[in-house]
Design a protein that fits this description.
Largest sheet: 2 strands, antiparallel
Number of strands: 2
Number of helices: 14
Radius of gyration: 20 Å
Mean pLDDT: 87
Low-confidence stretches: 103-114, 120-128
Shape: globular
Order of helices and strands: HHHEHEHHHHHHHHHH
Strand order of the largest sheet: 1-2
Amino acid sequence: MELSNVQSVALWGFLVAVAFGAVANKTNFCTMGAVSDWVNMDDKNRLRAWFLAIGVAILGSQGLQALGYIDLSKSIYLAANIGWLGHLLGGFLFGVGMAIEVANIDLAARQVADQSLATLVQAAVGATDANMVRWTVAAVVGLGFTIYALASVEFLKSFRNLFAGVSIGLFIVAGWYITGKLGFDEFEPVRLESYTFVSPVAENVNYLMTFTGSTINFGIAAVFGVIAGSFLYAVLSGSFKIETFNSRADMVNHMIGGVLMGFGGVIALGCTIGQGVTGMSTLALGAVITLIMIIFGSSLAMKMEYYLMDEQGFFRALRLALADMKLLPAVR
């Protein structure tokens, strides 16, 4: 049976996603864990793995663009008239939600026509060669993330984190290649996208409810693939186990965190992977804002949780947390 273009793209997306899920499980690649390690233990290894993934994704994706295989301007990340408020608020709420969900375990809506770092730099310096500006910005930003990640001797000794960063970055590049190059068909077009896990999860729910009349796409297949890959690795490695909530408070934390992450992810157009790696690979300014706000929101919430556990009031905990982050003077 010959597969349609949409089905072929979905199949390739699923296969790469299986590897994605297995690698993430094997290496313990976790963006929440990366922020938590940094904030609570001053351990930046997993944060460097995340940043290495961003660097690899930027260099690889922009390389595909330079070769003419894909046109990232057609992705949702560089779409016109996307409000900055969504990235600011959505990223912050997503970050807070991440921290709340695991707490018990350890601008004006200004709009721009093109949410691209390259466009911003081009306007600032008055350059006329847009392609040259794009390649320069891609090289500087991509290499910047990569060099920062590799600048630590301790990180270089951690094969697990090195492997995670390079692999996750390449999976994002593969996603762009699948939908932009392999999936290019003027008669049966598919949306240019790579791996993200906010909108596709909602699409999965709709697909499971109406699968007899629905068509599987790249995003739906990707979600199934990541779950399948992680599950298979857990079973084959003997690490699979069923976990439940520890208490009512644990369940409530997960519910509140899930709502904040879901709402924030929707208005920010992505999560720590969708915006934090895939969006960053397009050099989208909105992705930069979202990434910063996710890290800020989760860091602030974790520090506040520490002070709230010490029976500090909410506003004092907020002041102490902001002081710890050097955003306010030290509190006596």
